[in-house]
Design brief:
The longest helix is centred in the last third of the chain and has 23 residues. The chain folds into 2 domains: 125 residues, 4-Layer Sandwich (Metallo-beta-lactamase, Chain A); 111 residues, no CATH class. It is 36% helix and 20% strand. By secondary structure, it is an alpha/beta fold. The protein has 8 helices and 12 strands. Bound molecules: zinc ion (ZN). The site of zinc ion has 6 residues, from helix 2.
Amino acid sequence: MYFERLQSRLWETSSLLLVADGEAVLVDPGIAEAEVAAIRARVEALGARVTHVLATHGDWDHVCGIAAFLEATAAMGPATAERVTGDDGTTGVVEAARRYGVAIAGPPRVDTVLRVGRAHRIGPFTIETMALPGHTPDGVAYRVRALDLLAVGDHLSRVEFPFVTSTASYRATLAGLIDTLRHDPPATVVPGHGPALKAEEALEVAEADLAYLRALRAAVLGAGGDRERARAAALGIEPPRQASADLADMRAANVDRQLAELLPD
Ligand SMILES: [Zn+2]
């Protein structure tokens, strides 16, 4: 029984390979066609075949490799399945890949919808699922106790700051992850981007990210309802770490999300 994290050249995106008894489960295999082919080659070198592909959320960089594994069952939570079967997943994924100049296997598909919050038998593994809204509403964590491993999608990254769709959801997700990391820690946390972390390292990231989101909220609330003052104050809050230069706009996007949650237009 074994796992391995592989990494795309784009944004250090994680692909996770779980193997036992000649069967492999992939989480977010990606991104470019050649990188996905290398994942397949690695599975074959280990004497295994891919039985399942899981997705942590429906963003294009996490679902663009599914098409390369026709022989496997593509499984994900219901909200991700909805994204993947809608325009977001079909034309959206292909368009996004083209925008970044990456050749991908094709649009994603869904074979099985997983109930989130339940443990599932997936290939040779028992895999627990946990809802992680925050980065996107459809985020799902996968925990494999037999491998002492937790995959958290686009949270807890050392190479990005939080990219937020709902600051309230993101704070709640971080609070839940902090509880897990303190009281039921896995040996290894695999974020969607950047290196795998030990539980203590993931906890440091989680605390820093939560402090950043609390500071964003405080900045907006401290502006006395004046939207422009609130925006300026929130833009002054430093993210806990850098992200790649092409994603720097996400800092202002986070401010817009926080403004929208607290102040009516
Ligand atoms: Zn991502």
